[in-house]
Design a protein that fits this description.
BirA Bifunctional Protein, domain 2; Translation Initiation Factor IF3; homodimer; globular; Rossmann fold; alpha+beta
Amino acid sequence: MNFRVIFESKGLQVVTLLSPYLRRLQLLPPPLSLTIKEEEKVEMAGPSGKKEKVDKAGPSGGGGGKKKKDVKKETGLGLSVKKDENFGEWYSEVCKHEMIEYYDISGCYILRPWSMAIWEIMQTFFDAEIKKMKVKNCYFPLFVSPGVLEKEKDHIEGFAPEVAWVTKSGKSDLEVPIAIRPTSETVMYPYYSKWIRGHRDLPLKLNQWCNVVRWEFSNPTPFIRSREFLWQEGHTAFATKEEADKEVLEILELYRRIYEEYLAVPVVKGMKSENEKFAGGLYTTSVEAFIPNTGRGVQGATSHCLGQNFAKMFEINFENEKGETEMVWQNSWAYSTRTIGVMIMTHGDDKGLILPPKVASVQVVVIPVPYKDANTQGIFDACTATVAALSEAGIRAEEDLRDNYSPGWKYSNWEMKGVPLRIEIGPRDLENDQVRTVRRDNGVKEDIPRGSLVEHVKELLEKIQANMYEVAKQKREACVEEIKTWDEFIVALNKKKLILAPWCDEEEVERDVKARTKGETGAAKTLCSPFEQPELPEGTLCFASGKPAKKWTYWGRSY
Amino acid sequence: MNFRVIFESKGLQVVTLLSPYLRRLQLLPPPLSLTIKEEEKVEMAGPSGKKEKVDKAGPSGGGGGKKKKDVKKETGLGLSVKKDENFGEWYSEVCKHEMIEYYDISGCYILRPWSMAIWEIMQTFFDAEIKKMKVKNCYFPLFVSPGVLEKEKDHIEGFAPEVAWVTKSGKSDLEVPIAIRPTSETVMYPYYSKWIRGHRDLPLKLNQWCNVVRWEFSNPTPFIRSREFLWQEGHTAFATKEEADKEVLEILELYRRIYEEYLAVPVVKGMKSENEKFAGGLYTTSVEAFIPNTGRGVQGATSHCLGQNFAKMFEINFENEKGETEMVWQNSWAYSTRTIGVMIMTHGDDKGLILPPKVASVQVVVIPVPYKDANTQGIFDACTATVAALSEAGIRAEEDLRDNYSPGWKYSNWEMKGVPLRIEIGPRDLENDQVRTVRRDNGVKEDIPRGSLVEHVKELLEKIQANMYEVAKQKREACVEEIKTWDEFIVALNKKKLILAPWCDEEEVERDVKARTKGETGAAKTLCSPFEQPELPEGTLCFASGKPAKKWTYWGRSY
């Protein structure tokens, strides 16, 4: 039977109907509900080597719909819940589909190649940009001695509860316990003090790509909140506050570009409140994303000005042109693998992941659609030629010529993995010297002549990237609600809105709002005060305190 | 006075004579003996923020030789010992010159940008090569649960004494202590067991770039032996032993290329003995380097075939085409930041580091040599233009226009940092539209017309790279000694030779040799049995046991 006909006429529906049958033939992965149980076993008891015997080498079937009722509980292919029905479960299932593997130590996750490739693409971009800014890479140790870690009081208070301690090596106890870096300010700055003598040693701009550990107990979430994660941390020192302030914003702009230009995730640039700023720093700027489904903000990345606080603690002084001793001005800035989680939450749908072309390790997947007595070899050759032409043009393309899966299974499988563009080649395409393209973001199909393949595909990938951003932006805009009073605030909060409110900018008041909104879904707090401030009419009052408002600030629950 | 004249006539000698004077004017760094004391303080008490006030903004002097006797104790610029006099001290001083900073936790070191750049260049090469082999990058957690870590008995016996354990987070004890990975076999393979089902899931080829921790107590050495280090670890699984065997050698060849083509360090490819192979593996191949000054071998990098041992422990099975269950064949392979230490030991001289052009982050440094009433601005412009032309051509070039250092100081400073090629531009060069090149590897000077600058420099850099390898190879060859008897063995060992001996290949005998050669300089052991075996005449006997010899094997003390 002709798959093209089936899958075009009924689309995924059909796969859904057939899935128990296909699955028995091992043409579909086991329903994820199963996988999850397995995961949980792993989480508790350590990964079991055991597994039911499977024969993936079964016949390449796919026909004959039956057992409708068996299927009811499933949505799309493999996902057991819809994004809108149970977001948490949906997110965990999507992550588990080749992005993440749950690990036998809770709060730790395995980054599989499908997600690691995304991290590497962002890394290539960011690393090149900071090198243009004369930032140099280095590597400081994973371990911190207690004395140094605790040198900056506010700072350590901020991190102490989450610090993991090494106390033994082999069978013997260490003389002093040694901490694992939760971040590296205290690791690095004693040496900044040593390396910086005169004004000519400034600015000092270092960055490192590394892992950090924060032993959190609030429920772990892949990418978003894990006990070990990968990040870059930049640490810079300047002679003047002006230079530091300038760099804070240059870096923040790079973070915006990572989210908006690479991950197609809209973010707000703004200033963190006193309560929410970096422990020990002067002020913190951030890019904030928002997840409509949960009505929660996500701190996307932060660029801190540390002022002279650490310089004072660690005696980072320099001699200026006049021969006087001054303290340096410092910044630190970081973004982490959390970025990937925000991207998944923003774009994924009931079919699974949707990857923006710019970060997808496979931008185009080419799938042959053979038809019984048609020229199968010709179709396969056309697929290979297509991949060759695209790769030649610098497009990341792959073919899926596996003979043990049906085209329909492959469509759904690559949709689940989020590949931005699918190319199908069947007998009719061969005759007409064309290929069929199918967009992952909106499902739009198009027949394009093989003559103009490369230009068309390049154009399509750009359109997909742009559209994903636009759609995400519209969804977020639809959630923004401007409020003036406490009652409006509570209503909007319960409606999962991204709340923009006039605020008196007093720490006391934010703490009070947190206290008054505490609940099992978490308290509301400030996300950021956007740099782009709407007009604040004379005499506007703070929604929470009734005092004169100083600025517009975004409020909401957050990750 | 004209620096060119001074520095050409007497070379560094002059700087040496002048160094105390220059130093008082802050035209030279403090003698490293000072720095070392500081370091030691750091190692014991944590880095001190305190520092003597220095004014680097002093006049740009350099003339007038005096106080000969003050200088006697010093060699070259800043190094307090010669490579041949006290190799250990020499190595530590060279490392401290911007490659490494000693850290307040013993056995941990800071990789400064000057060494990190070398690591990144090797990483770019190797990462691209393994991606061609279809190896994919991933990231597994830093932490291992005890149960998994101890699953493979020989393996854990090999690592147990060096494992660091996390037992606390914040103030609370963990339910079970958690290990920090010394290597990731046991971290990864439970998931290989889960991911691999049928023959179509093979080969599985993963790699990760990460940090590992081995809490060694034998004396730490920067790069060569540290408690935390950076490496790449590849872990692959195949359906057949043939495929595994083939990959072991493909990877080993990449390691050879890193050493010989990038670091200009000659290595021997060979097989490790049973005593020296990877704990839990089937066999271990390695590239072995040799340090003539200490007469010690260094294991440069290893490519292991693990056979089916881990597959058995972790139940990594697959179903073959015939539907039968089989165990996979596995490899693991790694190289680390140790590579950088081997390079420093091999090429450095009494002036400091010598970097091979291929890994030098600065391949060419351009230094202006102004002369009192000469056209200083013209000279500076010529330097900038030269750097621009070289950078344009993809050569990593930098200018040193600092006005607070004399040309002589700059020469010595960049020689200490090991920059392969120096370009000087003075008044005469400006007149003759030429530049003066000075090679770091052999000191050869050349005047080249600015017209053919780029071609000349490219050619010179290639010559330097080739020459550094050749010189290192000759030095090593001169140390190789072929012996037949125990007496010859002992004599050669005491002469710090790289000993090639006929061996019966019995574990007992190697253990016996170790026992009989034990001493404060360490026992002798096998380094490897080279793949290129000299002819072994019928009836040749083992130098140690007198039994029939099976192969030629390299023996010696090692790092």
